[in-house]
Amino acid sequence: MRLIAFHAENIQPIKLVEADSLSDVVVLAGPNGVGKSRFLQWLLNQFQNPASNDQNWILVEATSETERAEWGKTQLNTRNAQDADRLRISLQRGGRKRADTKSSLLNFESDRKITNVLPYQFSWDYTDPFLEDVGWNYGFNTLSNRFNDTVHSIFRKVRSRRENISLYVEEQMRARLPGSAPAEQHGAINGILVNPEEFPDPLVPFKDAFARLLSPKQLEEPDPKKSQLFYEHEGQSFPITALSSGEREVVNIVFDFLLRNPSDCIVVFDEPELHLHPELSYRLIQTLRTAGARNQFIFCTHSAEIISASLDNSVIFIAPPKQPSINQAIRVTENDDTHQALRLVGQSIGIVALGKKIVLIEGQHGSLDKQTYGAMLRGSFPDLVLVPSGGKGFIQSFGSLNDLVLKKTIWGVSFFMLCDADAVPPSRDLARLTELSGGRMQVLKRYHLENYFLDAEVIARMFEPFETEASERSWLRDPAAIDERLKTIAREILSYAAALVVSAHFRERAGNVDLMPKGSQGKTTDELIALFEVEAASERLRINEALFADDIAVFTRQTMADLENSLADGTWKNKVPGRPILQIFCSTKHCGLDFGRFKNAFVKAAQGTANSPFAEIEEIFARFSEFDTAAVVQLVQVG
User: Fold this and answer.
1) Does 439 score more than 60 pLDDT?
2) Shortest CA distance to 187 belongs to which of 178, 199, 176?
3) Which helix (H) or strand (E) holds 546?
4) 340-420+427-445 sits in which CATH class?
5) Where does the pLDDT of residue 636 fall: very low under 50, low under 70, confident under 90, or very high at 90 and above?
6) How many whole angstroms from its chain centre is CA 479?
7) Mutual angle of helices 615-626 and 366-377, in 10-degree steps
8) Apex CA 472: angle with CA 468 and CA 478, to 5°?
9) Under the phi-then-psi rule, with left for phi > 0, alpha for psi from -120 to 50, and beta for the rest, what region is 291?
10) Peptide bond into 13 cis (omega under 30)
11) What are the residue boundaries of the structural domains of the chain, listed by start?
12) Which helix (H) or strand (E) holds 8?
């Protein structure tokens, strides 16, 4: 069976969610607090106890001939009392086997931690555990409650197979005529040939899945005497408990899934990415999807990777509640405007699952900057989610970014942009850009984030516990000496700083080369070449005019003069790139401290100071946190 539509009202905090035409993979996304977990629980309840209800119903479709014959139709809609009864009878049918789960539901909750691991106890019970009956709703139980059953069933299956082989050999031995010569054949026991096809290894799927997930590690043959599973790696044997927490989790999930051998089932999976590296999460999903037959997977996730990789299936974004009659479930596709707009800043649509207020951090060192911002803000704004963004080019496409992302509340998620000063070329009006974004884009007043670490008073305070008056580096306790040392480094890289400014200015002025000719359809190769030659000539002329040598010389002189004046008037800490200054200052020649360690120590030393060097940054984040989208007229709710 397959879920193809749902309609749910007033399952707090959700007011209304509905969707139809669902595919074999359904991804539910959305920020925290919108009710995704409550919706999953509602969905489980709909299958565990189907009942007729006009406000809350599901539509399922048969995926096997058995279901169609049993239902007498192809689809069941639980709004209809008879259909609800048919679905309940089908789901609650008895005689279900442990290793043959058909037309049912498997639940993998978000809390998959196994805390009560019971070792396998040897017994004389040799019955095949795969053929034992289990309750109709066994798959609705949590994974933690199924885990011991999974492991013990694997051991019991091994014992059962060995017992069956032994019984077969004994029967053949008793049937042999007295005095007959033993057969000398490969695979024979006491001269009796054992056909592997009659006694297939039941653990082959488990071994293959283990290798696919964790190669080069290999699952060993289970030995009931050891009471737990072992794996081999680089010639050594290790218990399963030696795996990392993420590796253990995927093994637990996949082994449970393989044991149940589901077909025509709905598999509900809450946060498959939890505790997992993105690559391991990807392998897990691929392994599950290739096992069984005609299964449908419903993933509830915050993973941008899973969301982005599923856009050719059914991705449903659950937005915060609007008016009671407005559907909160928004279908996300590869080609919608929002997805295309987010690509401008190097993001996918999956980013909307991270939080309700997302701050895009522009810059080449966005990931490192995120750590730095986090350290200096110390969790002061928990409602803000910082996401490293694509880099320098966004200002060139600011109009599209501003109209499609910054000025809109996308499905209840607000976006903000924080840039270093070097992101904005001198020719751009910074105040105007900020105004056009409605305050959603803010630019630091200093060249780099590292420029805020050039406070000599804080650096001196930072080195107080380490340096003494007699030390060769006692100057590190003197703010004036530190400031002079930093200024000297700035003077040394002044030409480099000027080169950055000049190159950025003329890069924007020249723009990108565009050779795309008009009217290129229906042309021969030679005709197309001729069109390109015309465009190339036009572009060369435009670039030559933009890069006129005298203009470059004039602008370079102005830039160098401005930077030299900044050394005299004390504004150089805003204008000269702070990252290279700090990197040089941290070298052995100066303070001899690792760059990352320096920044961490600086942040600690800055705490509690009367004049925080990060006051401007804290003020920007405070504005983002207090931002009221409802108060800004031009902000539009999408979807």
Assistant:
1) yes
2) 199
3) helix 525-546
4) alpha beta
5) very low
6) 44
7) 90
8) 60
9) beta
10) yes
11) 1-158+249-334, 340-420+427-445, 451-621
12) strand 2-11
Number of neighbouring beta carbons within 10 Å of residue 436: 18
As assigned by CATH, the class of the 1-158+249-334 domain is alpha beta
The first and second tokens of residue 427, run together, are: 């020719």
Handedness of CA 384, 388, 391, 394 (dihedral sign): negative
Asked if residues 11 and 46 have their Cβ atoms less than 8 Å apart, the reply is no
Distance from the Cα of residue 144 to its chain's centroid: 24
pTM over 0.85: no
Three-state SS string over 416-456 comes to: EEEECHHHCCCCCCHHHHHHHCCCCEEECCCCCHHHHHCCH
* Inter-residue contact 104 to 98 (CB < 8 Å): no
Query: Can you tell me whether residue 228 is helix, strand or coil?
Result: coil
Q: Are 403 and 635 in contact (CB under 8 A)?
A: no
In tens, the pLDDT along 50-99 reads: 999 999 999 999 999 999 999 999 999 999 999 999 999 999 988 899 88
Contacts of residue 155, defined as CB under 8 A and 6 or more positions apart, other chains included, come to 120, 222, 224
Write out the DSSP string of 313-340: SEEEEEPPP-STTS--EEEE-TTSHHHH
Give CA separation, 125 vs 97, 138, 154, 158, 325, in Å: 18, 22, 13, 12, 59
Give the tens place of pLDDT for each residue, 568-578: 999 999 999 99
Beta bridge partners of 298: 26, 268
Q: Give SS3 for 359.
A: strand
Question: Are both 1-158+249-334 and 340-420+427-445 of the same fold?
Answer: yes
Q: Which amino acid is at 326?
A: I
Q: Which amino acid would we find at residue 185?
A: Q
Pairing of strands 14-20, 25-29: unpaired
DSSP-assigned letters across all residues of 247-291: HHHHHHHHHHHHHH--BS-EEEEE-TTTT--HHHHHHHHHHHHHS
d(CA 253, CA 255): 6
Whether 95 and 129 have beta carbons less than 8 Å apart is answered as no
Residues in the chain, overall count = 639
SS3 assignment, position 583 = helix
Helix ranges (H only) for 106-244 are 143-175, 204-214
Q: Which two tokens stand for residue 270?
A: 């809450």
584-605 pLDDT tens trace: 999 878 888 888 888 888 998 9
Beta bridge partners of 314: 26
In this predicted model, what pLDDT tens digit does every residue of 160-176 receive, in sequence order?
888 888 777 777 777 76
